[in-house]
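In these records, each integer encodes one residue's backbone shape. Here is one protein:

___
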Amino acid sequence: MRRLVRLADQTAGWLLLAICVLNLAAVFMRYVMLNSISWSEEAIRYMAVWMTFLGVASASWLDEHMDMNLLDTILSETFQRFHRAFLHLLAVIFGVIVLWQGSIYVKLNGMQTAPTTGLAMAWIYSAIPVGGLLVVLVSLVKIYDCFVPPPKDDHGAPVL
């Protein structure tokens, strides 16, 4: 699971770099060369969608999502484990819904093509079920980790 999350995280990072480079090139072409890259905005938008759905796995794995930890500080460690497991179970349910609905969306609309790039929209829309699947997998591992702690690095963070 660590390797899968690392791959998703690195891919999201490369997509962010590509977005920045393409955006700079588009601005340069438009305002300096007075000629635009016609497909740049569409490509940036689609890369941002994929970056978001891949990045959710890494954020979940590293527990970087915003949360309310009021109950974590005032109750027993046993309760804390079950509380975290319950929160991850809610994430599993959410991920299953995103996976299920995203798959339906890909089937219904995937045959369309992007107006500028001509790319099949199934490639873009598939980010939704992929992100949902990653959330489910990460959350299931996190539920397991609530009762069997994962290895941690020198700073106490889960090893990626």
Observations:
- The first helix runs from residue 2 to 31.
